[in-house]
Request: fold
Amino acid sequence: MTCVSIESAEMEPYTGTGKIVPPISQRPGKPVCISKPSVTIPFIEPFRLKQEFPLSGQADSTVQSARSTICQILKKEDKRMLVITGPCSIHEEGAALEYAHRLRILQEEVRDSMFLVMRTYVEKPRTSIGWKGLVNDPRMDGSCDMTEGLRRARNLLVRISEMGVPCATEMLEPLTPAYIEDAVAWAVIGARTTESQIHREMASGLSMPVGFKNSTDGSLTPALNAIMAAAKSHHFPGINWMGQSCIVGTPGNPWGHLILRGGKKTNYDPASIQNACNVLLDRGLNPAITVDCSHGNSGKDFRMQKTAWDYVIHQRTSGNENIVGLMLESHLHEGRQNICSDLSLLQYGVSVTDACISWEETERLILSAHGRLKENMTNANEESASDKI
Reply:
């Protein structure tokens, strides 16, 4: 915000109120605020960042294979469950890489029944104010060096993908995809931005499946509208790989899908899921449901994610194949902590945003579900074989 003296500009008298108002030059020299950016800092170009942290052949293979697998799951041709699990937000790369290493080992154990993708959120939407994530403020001190943030975020996404672990993230700032999209296997538009035209347009140009969450009050309509809008072609202002302002034209994204995250009440029960399927079908959309076990579906109590998880797995093993995915907020250690001025005091592997379940709890939930899902898939295959005899 820049303040200037009203003596520095001239206006015609305004008489709409019936009173004669003198020109600005004849009024007292009180400052008037004109809205302008307080500071502008040149931003790194997308192509330059990608040169610094190129996507290796292994990382690209992880991303492309994961995108294809997720599409098959959404079409219900791959009968495995999609599981998006990981920290609420990423603030320390070391802990994120350790989590990814553990997830890679766990994926091998459950690959017959589940497809695991790491929640690697480098941007965070806020209800009011707060830390906005690794990209926005990587040092967590208000310095907001976003070029450093993008460097750290892209480097992390590339390294995790090179481990064979696909990454999922929330696309928040409209310019961010130009820098990291090629390293992301699955994206989400959150409950606060699903209604935004800008984010629907952005999603229409993303090259991976995109989940849209229901509104914070539990309404499905904004997410349904978003899925339909993102499937269409759009034109809007953006940047190209050189960082130049341009008109962006998108082809439309056919892989938008619904995420139930609860609202004023939970919405993972059979009636809520059936209602979601019905409204999707009414609009000619694929009735493929992913359930977020956190947020409104946990009553904002991280320990209640287990309740949602178990109930949804029960519904899936009882025959509801419209449930295709689950989301968990999980970290190395449970709970959360506040950001402090001395970052050395932060506990390693503990969230600084939403509270998370521990790795041990995550592993237990996934392995337990694996046993139930695998048994269910085996029984279904036997029944199918019997029917053919």
